């Protein structure tokens, strides 16, 4: 068990749920319950909306941008100072390697700092459209934001919503995933320590089907920001549409990794390992389909499988671990079933299978880094999001076919292109239908760079100046300058 905060945070106070209900959250890698957490319900959603609306209508929206920036920077400093403790808590709660959690907390810090810097740069425009009228625009906060975040990047994803929302003068209700609520609650506590007023950031863990849906439907919430699976995002958008809320969605992916014949083989192999096996493949932008030129396929497949088999799988709290557990036994079983389907459909297992783990670990929550070769692009495992440490290898004959395979899925979140030909890299990047394309790099997300999807991977861009559009409304102000009265009726 942990001494981390486990209550709801509403209006600056830690409290139990109105119903008194609780739910367990677990340590998936080691097995067993980690904490018992207050379970929010619809009454708690109402209370959080009241607190957030009160803070918004009170001083927060009118707070000087420079002051909001100082608070966000202070929150960044507090997070940075607790990196080790927060990384261990998140690692225990998610099964992710602790060093990866620590790296993500550094990204969370950078995200807060980036958006703190934007708080004083919400510029409007002036327009000269009529000699008798002066007009300009204002950027105003949307109001109360409902943010629903996933279990794969609990703290980092929370800051992706919190930072732009608060920088632009909104208040926010944060619903973390039930599997990983602990660091989000701690973020709320640190926000209060940073001087952010009570009610500006509220945290209400609870089941998505009840709490998330209540947030999407609530007339007191002006915007929903959601990260999660595509089917859930579709449901959120449908419910939110009934009150015409603003909605941004960052959803699933089945991202391609294109390796051309002229690619640097070593760089492509190492980068492709990172692109799929980081976070045990539980990333929306994981490049889970590797498309390799015929001429390089055998060499790439052999080298990649050797590297995949060599990755250290084990205790996420141990520094040498590269791949930790999955989020739960149930999810690991789902991933293993996808592997079976991939082989049944004609794929060849090049890496994966049984694991030897240290004592004290829950073997049922782990899946070995898996490589399935010879996969047809229209097979189920090449089309559906597995969300685990499983990658498929497929051949292509030329650039046109590679682009066709890359785009032949319903998702469009990320992609990577490996080639020594710079012109080809940019040409292919322009033709791939995804929100981010890395050329000779596995990295597709940094604070300051737009992140979001095409097609069924969602809409809206986070982590960038474009994100400010998601959290603000544009108001036009017009003033007549003619000394004569406006008299269109001629009366």
Short recap of the structure:
This protein has 491 residues and is of the alpha/beta class.
Average residue-wise pLDDT: 98
- Protein structure class: alpha/beta
Largest sheet: 7 strands, mixed
Fraction of residues in H or I helices = 25-40%
Going by CATH, what is the homologous superfamily of the largest domain?
Aldehyde Dehydrogenase, Chain A, domain 1
How many structural domains can be distinguished in the coordinates?
Answer: 2
User: Rg to the nearest angstrom?
Assistant: 24 Å
Count the DSSP helices: 14
Strand order of the largest sheet: 14-15-16-13-12-18-19
CATH architecture of the largest domain: 3-Layer(aba) Sandwich
Shape label: globular
First-last Cα distance: 79 Å
Can you count the beta strands?
Answer: 22
Residue share in β-strands? 15-25%
Assembly state of the chains shown? single chain
Under CATH, the topology of the largest domain can be stated as Aldehyde Dehydrogenase, Chain A, domain 1
The CATH class designation of the largest domain is Alpha Beta
The low-pLDDT segments are none
